[in-house]
Amino acid sequence: MTMIFGIPIQAFLGQLLVGLINGSFYAMLSLGLAVIFGLLRVINFAHGAQYMFGAFVGYLLLTYLGIGYWPALILAPLVVGIFGMVVERLALSKLYSIDPLYGLLFTFGLAQVIEGIFRYYYGVSGQPYSAPVQLGGGVNLGFMFLPVYRGWVVVASLIVCLGTWILIEKTRLGSYLRAATENPTLVQAFGVNVPLLLTLTYGLGSALAGFAGILAAPVYQVSPLMGSDLIIVVFAVVVVGGMGSILGAIVTGYMLGLAEGLTKVFYPEASNLVVFVIMAVVLLVRPAGLFGRDA
């Protein structure tokens, strides 16, 4: 049997795949957080609840309306994004001019409300959500068996992350968004609707969380606790990448997912701590994060 560092190659590559899948979700969720913080300067503690909300939208569409996975992959982010825009317009927009702590407290409270509603109706047990037939089964790569849906998760995550980075960094709309955060008065003077841009930005970040949620539903059971179980790790990913850095969120998400997977191979007891150990080391060496800009 082929060995890598004294470990069977199947076990090594299997954990690497698990790390890559977890990294895909870390990247998408931290990307949404980075978009919202980078452009709105809001620490969105409701992001985990929005991720859970996206998974439940898919589950409810299937259970009560018979709408399957593929339409839900579009509808779930849309519903969560619209919900986010309503929240931003009615409440969050009133907090921009005061201490950012109030935005954090508001989103933390919002997360508790959303999670509490779903816990009241569904308890804490997970609800099953099946992968579509087209993505069932697996592919024998010779050295390991790759489930097709897991491969789809990685591909879809890469496409969404790259598309979002291009939108923010390489398009005119993205340049308007970045300019609106630096000097909203000047951008408004050029006829750009800055409040609408900010609303769309929060909606985009929320939609990314919703997309990650529906993508995760067939991998993990749909549960009211799925967001709260993940959000602390995702915040650590954002800090390591650099608060507000779009590229940092993407790269660090995959990198820390792989680091977590490899730790499960060599030292399983530390797999739940490795992300936070890396965060502590990075902050000691580079307080702004790997891709952050020094103040």
From TrEMBL:
Q: Does the keyword Membrane apply?
A: yes
Q: Does the keyword Membrane apply?
A: yes
Q: What topology does it adopt in the membrane?
A: Multi-pass membrane protein
Give the Gene Ontology MF terms in alphabetical order. transmembrane transporter activity
In terms of superkingdom, the source organism counts as Bacteria
- Stretches of the chain forming a coiled coil according to its record: none
Q: Which GO terms describe its biological process?
A: amino acid transport
Protein name (record) = ABC transporter permease
Q: What is the lineage of its organism?
A: Bacteria, Pseudomonadati, Pseudomonadota, Alphaproteobacteria, Hyphomicrobiales
